[in-house]
Write a structure and sequence with these properties.
The longest helix has 8 residues, at 2-9. The chain contains two helices and 32 strands. It has a four-stranded antiparallel sheet, with no helix packed on it. Strands 6-7-8-9 form a four-stranded antiparallel sheet, with no helix packed on it. Strands 10-11-12-13 form a four-stranded antiparallel sheet, with no helix packed on it. Helices cover 3% and strands 43% of the residues.
Length: 372
């Protein structure tokens, strides 16, 4: 086994990604999420970077290239600036960047995570959630940061996670605690998410009505005279609206295959991610249109490259004769000699994952699991 170990240490495998040459991936890219929308543009997260495209999905451009993760983009009221959460400089903070691109500007400096939620209606401040003053990591609280001065202010809401200003700035729609349902479909436990409407002037709070059986109501977006949100009250997560005047809740989409995972909006359109694609719900005609966005980019994880290291070795089985060993290495099945000889990649399948190989008693066959 000493010889095996020395061979493992020097094991090198050339890996690639078959999707890098897939035309479908370039003309109608999937895995787009956390979209935002303005009158002229959309923004979204893809491959952990922030992208901007025309409102119809044409001409997508990558705005950020940092190794850190970008998330939660929101357009300013005039559509000229994007606020987002950036994991830069070893921390998670609030950043802004022009919609045309440029160097992101950092606005918060607390060592805790600051998560972007919305612009103030006048565009001068950014609303964000943080645990900086919370007595437990179970709760977030809301703060604003002034774009010009950097001055920060905590809002009087006791605890909140998602939040959105009303167009007049007099109210905030928010969820008191973070979502609990990401790992359990149709979760109906004691921490089901709910949306409360907070009146800034008199501090009164009202809740968006829930069905008797309960539901998870999340990610409120207050646009026009309604609050839009995602809910699983009828099974799968779909888009709903709530009218504070009539107290009416209305289901706007009826997806049954994949949930709506995130949304943002303007006065005339709500953009959301569903099944890895972006869709726009037209508030005027109540129609939903899927966007076709083709992202052609130099993504490092799609380049063929050499990978070295015995830390990638998992299941190992020795042949009946003891002359070779079979193992799964980064999703491929390989055999190695005990002393001298060549290493063989038996599967060499970048698009599939193989694991747990086992040698037959007569040494003529190898069984393994595959997700091909």
């Amino acid at each position: 086994m000493k010889n095996f170990h020395s061979f493992f240490t020097g094991l090198v495998l050339l890996i690639g990604n078959s999707l890098s040459v897939d035309a479908q991936n370039i003309t109608d890219t999937r895995l787009l999420w956390q979209p935002a929308i303005s009158n002229d543009h959309i923004a979204f997260i893809y491959a952990e970077d922030l992208w901007v495209a025309n409102r119809d999905g044409s001409y997508p451009q990558r705005i950020t290239v940092s190794e850190g993760l970008e998330s939660n983009p929101v357009f300013s009221p005039d559509g000229k600036t994007i606020a987002f959460t950036g994991q830069y400089d070893g921390n998670t903070d609030v950043f802004i960047v022009p919609v045309t691109g440029g160097v992101p500007k950092r606005l918060t400096w607390h060592p805790g995570a600051d998560l972007v939620r919305d612009f103030s209606p006048d565009g001068k401040k950014i609303l964000f959630a943080s645990q900086r003053n919370s007595f437990t990591n179970r709760y977030y609280q809301l703060f604003t940061v002034d774009i010009a001065s950097g001055a920060e202010e905590q809002l009087p809401i006791p605890n909140a996670f998602w939040a959105s200003y009303s167009p007049d700035g007099n109210s905030i729609a928010y969820t008191p605690i973070p979502d609990r349902f990401e790992q359990w479909k149709n979760y109906r436990g004691g921490t089901m998410s709910r949306i409360w409407l907070y009146n800034i002037k008199d501090h009164n709070v009202t809740q968006i009505p829930k069905p008797t059986a309960g539901s998870n109501d999340s990610k409120p977006v207050w646009k026009g005279n309604k609050v839009y949100f995602r809910s699983d009250r009828n099974g799968e997560f779909n888009l709903y609206s709530y009218d504070p005047d009539s107290k009416a809740v209305k289901q706007l989409t009826k997806f049954t295959d994949y949930p709506i995972s995130s949304l943002e909006g303007t006065g005339d359109g709500i953009i959301f991610s569903q099944g890895g694609y972006l869709n726009i719900y037209n508030v005027g005609n109540e129609n939903t249109a899927k966007l076709k966005i083709g992202v052609a980019a130099d993504l490092l994880d799609q380049r063929a490259r050499f990978v070295k290291g015995d830390q990638y070795i998992r299941t190992i089985d020795i042949s009946p004769s003891g002359s070779r060993v079979v193992l799964d290495y980064r999703g491929d099945i390989m055999t190695l000699p005990s002393q001298k000889g060549d290493a063989f990649n038996l599967t060499n399948s970048p698009g599939a994952h193989e694991k747990e190989p086992a040698w037959s008693p007569n040494g003529k066959s190898i069984a393994y699991f595959s997700d091909a």
